[in-house]
Amino acid sequence: MESKRSMIKNIIRLRGNNREKIEDEIVIEAPVTIYLNGNELVTLLCTPEKIDRLALGFLRSEGILTTIDDLASMRTHEEKGLVEIDLKGESVSLEKFYGKRTITSGCGKGTVFFNVIDSLRSKPLTGKMEVDSGKIQNMMNEMQQRAELFKLTGGVHSAALADNEKIILFCEDIGRHNAVDKIIGECLIGGISTAAKCFILSGRISSEILLKAAKLKIELIVSRAAPTSLSIDLAQKLNITLVGFVRGQRMNIYTHHWRVKISNGN
Amino acid sequence: MESKRSMIKNIIRLRGNNREKIEDEIVIEAPVTIYLNGNELVTLLCTPEKIDRLALGFLRSEGILTTIDDLASMRTHEEKGLVEIDLKGESVSLEKFYGKRTITSGCGKGTVFFNVIDSLRSKPLTGKMEVDSGKIQNMMNEMQQRAELFKLTGGVHSAALADNEKIILFCEDIGRHNAVDKIIGECLIGGISTAAKCFILSGRISSEILLKAAKLKIELIVSRAAPTSLSIDLAQKLNITLVGFVRGQRMNIYTHHWRVKISNGN
User: Fold this and answer.
1) pLDDT-based confidence at residue B123 (cuts at 50, 70, 90)
2) Which chain B residues are within 8 Å of A184, Cβ to Cβ?
3) Which residues of A participate in catalysis according to the annotation?
């Protein structure tokens, strides 16, 4: 199967001393450039599907756009890897965006650091969402089942938005941040509230992902992988529940464990 | 064990319906700010060890510094997370750095895209390094053995520099790019040539990692994980051998397979 998500390449597979030529499915990485009000803003390297969602989610994560009402128009050219977005008058704070960039890193980490400081000053979430531990396990299993591109290529991350019962949105991308941004973009387009929702992620939880979730008032972040010390500290302060290493019957709860109810049987 | 690489946190571990309070080892994420010739350049989020190596490697990867001779002085303040670097006169091309930033992404991906274009115009490597497939397996095993922080916390990536016999340098960091940049910084400080060397990595091979290696004339990139389509295309054009999914007796060779010699027995 060839698609815009994966492609076949001829490779050589070694198994011990046995060498064979095979066809293998490779995840596609492609550039997508976002134009904002006629100006080139940024180029992202990503899995080139749902690029309109990616662009909107990226703008939301960067604080350039807050609601879908900020959007005047959007044109997507999938084959060229272009998304042109026009925002309504006053809503563009590009100076802030460019200003941040000039002192930040090749991986936007400087930006995030300043956001960390902002977030330490911001108010903790007040949501009282509760999720059954068995549901968390089931949703993690479901996400892994749905990770078709990962099963095919082994080279992508998954992200899902869920309530306390089921997965609502699901995305895969070569980048951890892109996968989350696509979910955010889908929420903007579909008018899906992120209140009383959780993120389910395949990748590790860094401070950057924690802050992305906090901006959306996501109360619970669940991952198959590890959190960092900084993400735990931020989650503690912002009243976000952090759950990691969800594997089979096991999980680690790092902060605000009252949101996770232990299943009785199931 | 508390160190600047990991710390103990009190967490709750669920196993089925069993809930217990335990102490768990968490990988530390901390900001490190690089000052260049007295100006704040960038803040990276990283595992806060070898931060002088990280800073030098970052500058090398960004093309701000080429050799250790460009360095006038360096002061490292580990506890504050600061590295102050002064370069000799003409060698700083900050305009290029800032210029790139203003049109690129929260994850530096735009920058990389332009580098991709540059690299497609650059000349293929001419090195004729060859490595035995059994040595590749052994070195991957050795790297996993040495990944102490990963074994402790489950939250970091590994990177190593090797010749065709053995691992020469090894680093761990919460970021894939940081781990590689620390290796690059160590090479600069130690006067270690990267010619006829390979990278051994725990994480997936994106175009960004490929281009980082190409700048150093690294002939072979070996990973436990998957490559992307763009990294394979670039490796093909730049005469770099790409090997992925090195697990046990198995590996996939994506490009220029003549550099990998099949072991006879062993």
Assistant:
1) confident
2) none
3) 107
Render pLDDT for B35-75 as a digit per residue (tens, 0 to 9). 999 988 888 999 999 999 999 999 998 888 889 999 999 99
How many structural domains comprise chain B?
2
Does residue B14 belong to any structural domain of this protein? no
Crossing angle of helices A51-61/A207-215, nearest 10°?
Answer: 90
| Chain A touched by B222 (CB under 8 Å) | no
Query: Which two three-digit tokens encode residue B81?
Result: 């997370």
Secondary structure of residue B240 in the 3-state scheme: coil
A251 in Cβ contact with A132 (< 8 Å): no
Q: Are residues B156 and B76 in the same domain?
A: no
CA distance A193 to A218: 10
Residues A79, A208: Cα–Cα separation, whole Å: 30
pTM of the full predicted structure? 0.90
**Is A42–B109 a contact, with Cβ atoms under 8 angstroms apart?**
yes
Contact B58 A260 (CB under 8 A): no
- Rounded to whole angstroms, how far apart are CA atoms B118 and A49? 25
Asked if B251 and B146 sit in the same domain, the reply is yes
Q: Is residue A20 part of a domain?
A: no
This model of the complex carries an ipTM of: 0.89
Q: Whole-angstrom distance between the N-terminal and C-terminal Cα of chain A? A: 38
Q: Which of B45, B112, B227 sits opposite A113 (nearest CB)?
A: B45
With cut-offs at 50, 70 and 90, classify the pLDDT of residue A63: confident
CA angle B137, B138, B142 (to 5 degrees): 120
Q: How far is A191 from chain B (nearest CA, A)?
A: 25
Best CA proximity match to B59, nearest among B28, B90, B92, B27: B92
Cβ-based neighbours of B211, under 8 Å, separated by 6 or more? B112, B115, B116, B119, B234
| Total length of chain A | 266
B132, B109 Cβ separation under 8 angstroms: no
Interface contact B13-A204, CB threshold 8 A: no
3-state SS class at A118: helix
User: Each residue of A171-214: pLDDT tens digit?
Assistant: 999 999 999 999 999 999 999 999 999 999 999 999 989 989 99
Tokens 């180029």 identify what position? Answer: A43
Judge if B105 and B138 occupy the same domain: no
Q: CA-CA distance, B242 to B156, in Å (whole number)?
A: 22
A25 is a domain residue = no
Residue B257: both structure tokens together: 């397979």
- Rounded CA gap, A185 and A50, in Å? 9
For residue range A123-157, list pLDDT tens digits in order: 899 999 999 999 999 999 999 999 999 999 999 99
Q: B242 lies in which domain range?
A: 131-261
Q: Are residues B135 and B257 in the same domain?
A: yes
| Cα-based angle A114, A90, A93 (whole degrees, multiple of 5) | 20
